[in-house]
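User: Round two. Same drill as before: sequence, then structure, for each protein.

Assistant: Same drill it is. First protein:
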Amino acid sequence: RLIFFFFQAEDGIRDAQESRGLGDVYKRQFDNIQKFLQFQLSINIVAVSLTFLGALILHMEVFYSSQLLWVNVIMDTFGSIALATEAPVPTLLHRNPYPRDMHLISPKMLKNIIGQGVFQVIILFGIILFGDKIFPEWETSDNVIFSRQVGVTSEGVKYGYMHSGIHSKYHEEGLYELYGPSRHFTMVFNSFIWLEIFNFFGARNLNDELNVLKGLRKAHFFNSIIITVIGVQLIIVQFGSSFFGCHHDGLTLEQYLICMGIGALALVFRAILMLIPEDKVFNLFKKKEADPQRSKNLIKKLKVAQAAQRLSGVNQQMVYGTTHSTE
């Protein structure tokens, strides 16, 4: 009996350990799916919104089909590999299991998805409308044209502001046939990709953690994907030319650094979103639930009123009967 009890206890301990380990695996998989959705849905909002606004307001395509294909590779293939293969963190062991009725998209995720999507659409559409007034341009070759020339450097290079790539100001003037894709929309495309590169880091955190670099040493797949995206994007912008809808001379170092700075704003805005309590924001759009105690009180009052009405009816019948009997 003692030997049988020993083996039975050992099997029970092993089953408990296996079930706990299986539960931790489920929690990790659930977290990774949420990270991927947080990243993918925010990109979808930006890409769809810019495509719709470009067709509605500017009567043009903001992105080339080859550019959208590259965005789709980042969003689906690279996003799933980078975020769905995250290693488990030590705090995972101390967390309670997820309830069966838990939603796949939490309020924090929804806040980040909508917030990042709207912010990036505003930034990129602002670049589209006003890029020719704020982005510098240098005459590095015969393919460069200015919207307004400012002066000449000491080396004799002309500089000013880049020409707008909006269809009515570029294509209809015949500039596309002369100079190819505009540098203006090359910066729009490059800024979009860099916003998503930095959004990769923000999507790794689901609970508004401030340190987006936490656990990055062990995230080998994530690091490899980030390096791959940066390298391929550099090649596309500098050498992709008309096939990828980029300027024939690519971007200058200064212009490329500007795009990287615009992309870093995704993390700055994420820090701002952390200050917004998602529960209070989303509760504004919820229907106010009825107070159960108030409902009980109303039911009691209704029953008392009905009882009083029945009692008054009985009293009236008694009075009527009494008067008839006296007669």
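Second protein:
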Amino acid sequence: MKRIAIVHGLNSLVGAARGVHVTGARGVHVTATSYQRFSSESEEIIVGGHDVTYSEHDEVTNRAMTVNLLPMWRGQRKQGTRYGSSILLAKIRELTRGELAVNFIADKTLNSSLRDDNFMQRMREVKDRVRVGGDDMIVNLGGDHAIPMMTVPGMLAKYPDLRVIWIDAHADINSTETSPSGNYHGMPVYYLSNASGEAPHKLNLDNFAYVGVRETDEGEDVLLDKYKVRNYTKQEIEDRGIGNVVEELISRLDLQNHPVHISFDIDALDPTLAPSTGTRVPKGLSVGDVVTIFQGVRETGNLVSCDIVEFNPLIGDEKDVETTIRSIVPVLKALL
């Protein structure tokens, strides 16, 4: 592993992503060109966040955590998602004030020469580089929502009885044959699960549930009906209360007795709360909804890993980016 850069602060990283030459809190100069060099050539990056000023009352913790940094963008067509992971890592670094085990999978490894005809093969190759070992909480920072094709298989190999909660505006259960867009970030559930056939280290959809899905395609509807996959909608949450929904979710998947992975796409949130993401859908979840899910699952003692994906700091203006980060921070704190 090579440690090649210390970049201080979200403001520096957002500026770099937008092509602005900025100086970090300790005089580290960051540009889009230098960020790309970090992304392309390095295997590990340490990021600090000491110039972030909008969260003065953040709690500090030293909880053991391994972060897989996955600047994936080829699962869709908006390159800005490659910058989101480092910005979120900067925030985690600020919250913990301690050392983290960070596994940075290089931009070129994930995205270079990636095409539709070699996408799945690349995911299979890279998944073995995603860290899943030890007793640390595993946090996977994307990048787009294709990253579970790399993050979930290893957890299933480690925990064959793994339960998965998918917090998203979309079902992500298309195949290459059914997807209207052809974007792989809309396909991970299909290729990870028994919907695409039985094989070792595949997820049984009986051990899976959605929260917040509100936009599906015709081919997805067929599979959701076939496998009777549960989706807890925003309307149900409003009608029953998020606490009751989480209690049922824990019971339904028997989360008290099995390890759990949560995959959180920030477009699950209402667009007013997360404007800096690429596929916004109205009438989404609140920050409180998502935090309650994470807290409830964590309290079982069985939350072993999670994904946080689809933050794109190149979408919207500075206010939009700050609004989006403010919405993600309580989720990060729930993990810590």
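Confidence is low (pLDDT under 50) at residues 1-12, 18-58.

User: Perfect.
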